[in-house]
Amino acid sequence: MTTIALRRVTADDWETWRPVRLAALADAPTAFGSTLGDWADAGEDRWRTRLSIPGALDLLAHTEDGAAVGMASGVPGDDPGTAELISMWVDPAARGRGVAAALIRAVATWAARAGAHTLELSVMPDNAGARRAYEHCGFRAVDEPGDALPDGRHEVVMRRDLAAERPQGAGSA
Ligand SMILES: CC(C)(COP(=O)(O)OP(=O)(O)OC[C@H]1O[C@@H](n2cnc3c(N)ncnc32)[C@H](O)[C@@H]1OP(=O)(O)O)[C@@H](O)C(=O)NCCC(=O)NCCS
Known about the structure:
Order of helices and strands: EHHHEEEHEHEE
Number of strands: 7
Strand content: 25-35%
Strand order of the largest sheet: 1-2-3-4-5-7-6
Structural class: alpha+beta
Shape: globular
Distance between the termini: 36 Å
Bound molecules: coenzyme A
Low-confidence stretches: none
Radius of gyration: 16 Å
């Protein structure tokens, strides 16, 4: 299998991050809250703002030849002790090889080190592939509705306990 390296990006990497995010929005138009139309003409300032969320981690996954094949971000959650996984995408050609799992592991480790006990995400109810991938990576759907969708359905909220990722000496959850 090709070796995958994860790289943390910042606002100064917006020109590298932008085509990957646009590829994600084009490839999976119903998977995200944002659409390609929302971002196709976005200028530098908007990309820099997206990559400057306070306390966030933005990752790109690269193959050995430098091609970006995936992305994910972690942001502080709404509730204390929580972090949220967002913007998760893997290039179709690189799927099924653990790229998403590696990104999720990195975001989980980052979140635990930042003091979170729970990593949370929202997924579209009909995104069965992503829901299964998240389950394989330790997330469980919770019995509370996520954000409302225009058609009346709600996003599905999934959570993963971060006890296993917590640094030694940080106490038990
Ligand atoms: C969801 C997505 C990120 C998964 O990426 P991936 O790199 O193929 O996932 P991985 O190879 O790391 O798989 C992780 C686990 O999920 C399983 N899995 C992945 N995709 C799956 C699918 N479609 N159906 C069932 N299981 C799946 C894998 O077998 C693996 O399990 P294992 O660790 O027990 O072997 C990718 O399909 C994608 O980008 N989809 C479009 C965008 C999207 O839906 N993003 C989520 C928005 S909330």
